[in-house]
Design a protein that fits this description.
The structure holds two protein chains of two kinds.
Chain A: E1 4-13, E2 16-26, E3 31-36, H1 42-50, E4 57-62, E5 65-66, H2 72-79, E6 80-83, H3 95-106, H4 113-123, H5 128-131, H6 140-152, E7 158-162, H7 170-185, E8 189-193, H8 197-202, E9 205-209
Parallel strand pairs in A: 3-8, 3-9, 6-7, 7-8
Antiparallel strand pairs in A: 1-2, 1-4, 4-5
Helix pairs in contact in A: 3-4, 3-6, 4-6
Chain B: H1 2-13, H2 15-51, E1 55-61, H3 63-69, H4 87-98, H5 102-108, E2 114-127, H6 142-148, H7 151-155, H8 162-167, E3 173-178, H9 185-188, E4 192-197, E5 208-212, H10 213-218, E6 226-231, E7 234-249, H11 254-257, E8 270-274, H12 275-287, E9 291-293, E10 300-302, E11 307-315, H13 318-330, E12 337-340, H14 342-350, H15 352-386, H16 388-396, H17 401-456, H18 480-483, H19 500-527, H20 530-537
Parallel strand pairs in B: 3-8, 5-7
Antiparallel strand pairs in B: 1-11, 1-12, 2-3, 2-6, 2-11, 4-7, 5-8, 6-7, 9-10
Classes of the chains: A alpha/beta, B alpha+beta.
């Protein structure tokens, strides 16, 4: 059974068609890569998948339920973990506070939230000193790890990541991809948006987006 | 709950901005606290004094009302000239219906709220050759005395001869008969006191009296001596009074001495006795009354002594007085009579500078709040725009816009609340000296205004303003006894102004400012779309 299904998704900016009639199924326990040239609509598709944008036509089903009928804030805060290309962390907060805030928004009632957040950060490779540092004081790779920990903090079924290795060195890229692999192996549906062939190679399935001609 | 924790975190991480907002709110809060405290001080002064104030009231005839209610005379053919005022009708009305009888006064005294009731009768009398009134003139001739007998009638254009008959001819002395010692308010409040001998027995019908020390000295009189007073309308009608004591009156001064040229108005020429004794004298006079014709006007009049009866009602509080007003109307008191209280009028006058200051403080408060609110709104709009990215991230993470707005509002509220608390503390300390300084300026301005007015009327060179200028330091609430019957004494000092009411109002201001500033930021937050914010950022 598919966890997330796209049915005839189309999207356009004015007359420019970005996505045209996409139908695709994403399953749990697999790592997907959405590839394509610049302007092919990778980030637009990710926005639609995360509920930040609505498709021009077509529907998205989460566990067979149309997400248009699900509260978009609830969908974003509970079911979908999004890792943005530029991380989008609250810069004045520490890494730990960013993760805990995400848990708060998702309504996680765990009294051990601080401990759990620290464990998550440790899992993605940040020690307690780094965890208690403001995110602006962290490197790009560390910020990416915070973003991953934040996305995992409320245990969503789907992890969406936009160019997760774009700003990272090769060694860190490998470590990050290892984390995603581990998540997929643990039953999460990991959807990566990337134009990197190395990333595509490490995924179970790839979906190639073609740039659309002007309508 | 996390919204508040988050708000606290945001405040602590953006110190510069929040300190700036805090300082602005602090200035608003201090100004508002001073303004509110002044208003509250005025209100407290009014309330506390009125609460503990024993009010007295009198019923008096409203002459102006009576004039306007008179039957309009038939107008002649010349429509351009105003109708002629019917003086005889007016004099008749004044004589027949203006004065309430003792029975009527006593009826109204039965009103539920009346705590005490007393009355006095004033009669004008002349002295014999051995009893001359204290006068500013070196010698008083027989002619002077005769001229005085003309009273109001002689002074008024057209000769309103009816007045002197009604009110008693203006003569050498005013003899006042009191129903009880309570009625002798000058002696009760300390402006007058018996210095030699003793006061006549309360309620006595004997012709006993007390006279002023000045009058005694002027006529070489001693306690126990007898004096003879004469009916000004009938020289053959005289009464012998026994002097039981002398009194001094601190209100006797040059102004009253020469007032209207009537010696009987001089406090030194007032003779006090029991109401019963004076009433007996009036009744005796009625027994020997004759009908005479006024040489000037040709009108007939009775020679019997006539007096002016005045009654005073005492109440436990202002509410009692207000209830009395409506009660006596229900009991049948005509609209031609007014119920008034000099205590309340004097009290209201004493509050004038404070009330003026309170009004000014009110306007100042409104201006401060408007300016403050505008500044806060502008600062908040800038703040929201500056934090646009943060809003985008929070909403992208699934935080509802309303919760984001609530967090922003909580931040403003916390900063505002802390500033308002500090501002209230500073304002509470500053309000008393600031209010007193402003109050002093107000009082000085009032006195200056009065002095200018006095000078305008050519009285300024005497250096008497009629208002005491050294009333400073008078604590709130402790002054009522001092100004009964005296010139207006202003409240020039307040002790404490910031109370629970002010603090609650300050809290209200904090909430109001938060709501106004928060609403502005909420409008922006609700318009923001996370995708657009984050895309632009990317």
């Amino acid at each position: 059974m598919s966890l997330l299904s796209l049915k005839n998704i189309s999207f356009s900016y004015g007359k420019k068609i970005i996505l045209n009639d996409i139908t695709y199924d994403f399953e749990a326990g697999k790592m997907y890569c959405i590839t394509g040239k610049s302007g092919a609509g990778k980030t637009t598709l990710l926005s639609i998948l995360s509920g930040l944008a609505a498709p021009g036509s077509g529907s998205i089903f989460y566990k067979d339920e149309d997400i248009a009928k699900i509260d978009k804030y609830k969908f974003r805060s509970k079911y979908m973990g999004v890792i943005f290309q530029s991380f989008n962390l609250i810069t004045k907060f520490t890494a730990l506070e960013n993760v805990m805030l995400s848990m708060d928004i998702a309504g996680v009632k765990d009294k051990q939230r601080a401990k759990k957040a620290a464990e998550l950060l440790a899992e993605v490779g940040l020690d307690s000193d780094e965890a208690n540092r403001r995110v602006l004081m962290l490197s790009g790779g560390q910020q990416q790890r915070v973003a991953i920990a934040r996305a995992l903090s409320y245990n969503p079924d789907i992890i969406l990541a936009d160019e997760p290795t774009g700003n990272l060195d090769t060694e860190t890229q490998a470590e990050i991809m290892e984390i995603f692999r581990r998540l997929a192996d643990n039953g999460k549906c990991v959807i990566l948006v990337s134009h990197s062939p190395q990333v595509a190679k490490m995924c179970d399935e790839c979906y190639q987006l073609q740039a659309q001609k002007k309508g | 709950m996390y919204i508040f924790k988050n708000a606290l975190r945001c405040i602590s991480r953006s110190k510069g901005r929040n300190i700036l907002i805090g300082i602005i709110v602090l200035v608003i809060a201090v100004s508002a606290c001073i303004g509110l405290s002044i208003r509250q001080a005025a209100e407290n002064a009014r309330k506390e004094t009125l609460d503990g104030m024993s009010v007295t009231a009198t019923i008096s005839f409203d002459r102006q009302s009576a004039m306007s209610n008179m039957t309009p005379p038939t107008q002649g053919g010349d429509m351009s000239s105003p109708p002629e005022f019917d003086r005889s009708q007016f004099a008749e009305m004044m004589g027949s219906s203006s004065a309430l009888t003792l029975e009527e006064y006593e009826t109204y005294a039965k009103a539920q709220t009346v705590k005490d009731f007393y009355y006095s009768l004033s009669v004008s009398l002349d002295g014999d050759d051995n009893l001359l009134p204290v006068s500013s003139e070196d010698t008083q001739t027989e002619d002077d005395t005769e001229n005085n007998k003309g009273g109001f009638g002689g002074m008024m254009p057209g000769g309103m001869g009816g007045f002197d008959r009604v009110m008693g001819a203006q003569s050498d002395f005013t003899v006042v008969g009191y129903s009880s010692e309570t009625a002798m308010t000058d002696f009760i409040n300390g402006t007058a006191s018996v210095t030699t001998g003793e006061v006549f027995a309360e309620g006595t019908k004997d012709y006993e009296c007390i006279i002023s020390e000045e009058l005694a000295t002027y006529n070489n009189l001693s306690v126990g001596d007898s004096i003879t007073v004469i009916n000004p309308n009938s020289e053959t009608e005289s009464y012998i009074l026994t002097v039981t004591g002398f009194y001094t009156d601190t209100t006797a001064n040059e102004n009253s001495f020469s007032m209207m040229g009537m010696t009987s108005n001089d406090p030194a020429n007032k003779i006090y006795m029991s109401y019963n004794a004076l009433q007996a004298m009036v009744e005796a006079s009625e027994g020997v009354s004759e009908t005479k014709t006024d040489e000037d006007t040709g009108r007939e009049f009775e020679t019997a002594l006539t007096g002016t009866l005045s009654a005073t009602y005492s109440f436990a509080d202002v509410e009692g007085f207000e209830q009395f007003e409506s009660d006596v109307r229900e009991m049948g008191l005509d609209e031609s009579y007014t119920v008034s209280s000099t205590d309340i009028t004097a009290f209201e006058n004493s509050l004038t500078p404070l009330t003026t200051l309170s009004k000014t403080a009110g306007y100042f408060l409104i201006v401060i709040l408007i300016i403050g609110a505008v500044i806060l709104v502008v600062l908040n709009i800038f703040s929201v725009r500056e934090r646009k990215y943060e809003i985008g991230v929070l909403t992208a993470m699934g935080m509802k816009k309303t919760k984001v707005a609530m967090q922003f509002m909580a931040e403003i509220f916390m900063v505002t609340l802390v500033s308002v608390i500090i501002g209230a503390a500073v304002g509470a300390v500053a309000s008393v000296p600031v209010a007193n300084t402003l109050l002093e300026n107000q009082t000085t301005a009032k006195e200056q205004q009065f002095q200018n007015m006095e000078q305008g009327f050519g009285r300024g060179d005497k250096g008497e303003t009629g208002m005491p200028g050294n009333m400073g330091g008078m604590p709130q609430g402790g002054f009522m006894k001092d100004f009964i019957g005296n010139p207006t004494e202003y409240i020039t000092e307040i002790n404490s102004a910031t109370d629970v009411t002010v603090l609650l109002q300050m809290l209200g201001i904090a909430v109001l400012l938060t709501l106004i500033a928060g609403m502005a930021s909420m409008l922006f937050i609700m318009r923001y779309e996370p995708l657009r914010i984050l895309s632009n950022r990317d």
